[in-house]
Amino acid sequence: MTRVFSGIQPTGDLHIGNHLGAIRNWVRMQHETDAIFCVVDLHSITIPQDPGSVGAASLRLSQMLMAAGLDPQVCTLFVQSHVREHAECAWLMECTVSFGELSRMTQFKEKADRQQFISAGLFTYPALQAADILLYDTDEVPVGADQRQHVEITRDIAERFNSRHGETFVVPAAVIPAAGARVMDLQRPTDKMSKSLDSPKGTVGLLDEPKQIAKKIKSAVTDNDNEVRFDVEAKPGVSNLLSILGAATDRDPESLAADYTQYGPLKVDTAEAVIELLRPLQARFAELEADPAETMRLLRLGADKARQTASVTLARAKTNIGLLEG
Ligand code: TYM
Questions:
Q1: Active-site residue, 215 included
Q2: pLDDT tens string 90-121
Q3: How far apart are CA 227 and CA 44, in angstroms?
């Protein structure tokens, strides 16, 4: 069976970009594949977080993922720091990737530009991500378009490790959805919707109230030529609305454009589709939030399951390098 792995950082509440670009596909894929999903708390501390906040954020994110439809009975869902093999394997990855390769990562450059304190962990972030993926003999990594470069470097690391030390890791492929792979900020439609953009009016949170969602989508930035057409370069705002509506209703954004002659009705339908998409998730989240002990129980089971695979792969990697067995 195809092995699928993906991860998400516990930094701030999720937005519809995370949902349409990644999580929605994870929910589908869990039924067709052997799927493993990880709350990557060690990645989140590459940027300074408020003291004591990461644990609560990991719990909340896990509940959001379950509310979105990840079923811990069907897939494996766990928190990265609960499986220590990730940190250990990351060191092997750091010794397999070069300074030059890490220096070329666009996400590092973007994030470093926004930080006063640039941790070494922020620089070596892709090595930890490679460890996440390679520890599980992963075939497919379902992600939004912004993660393509991280999966590419993971492939390079796996190939280099295999050629140096013999067949050890499966070389994974990124799976990027046709619609929703790059949801843009509603106020700044040339920037991707992002937890770190600090644009509350441009970001639709998964827990936003229906009224708030309608308001944000109604005030989304478009343009003045009043023609509904899918053209990301020339019409980023309108194209973003078409992409969101298309992803939420499983339709192709280009053909959807033909249904509209004005921006008003496009905005109304997009808001309606997003509200309906999120309604069941929001109701389920309220239930899960009330029972943190049950979430913790499920996460511990998930970590136990993950560890079984991760420990075997890590041991294989250490043996193949030729480290002295303990
Ligand atoms: P993160 O936490 O930033 O995002 C989680 C997922 O959401 C997708 N995404 C988007 N998709 C469409 N439009 C957007 N505006 C948008 N914003 C975010 C991301 O592409 C991602 O799939 N480095 C990763 C976490 C990670 C990981 C891994 C992923 C760590 N280890 C191993 C895959 C495999 C990240 O920061 O994702």
A1: no
A2: 999 999 999 999 999 999 999 999 999 999 99
A3: 41
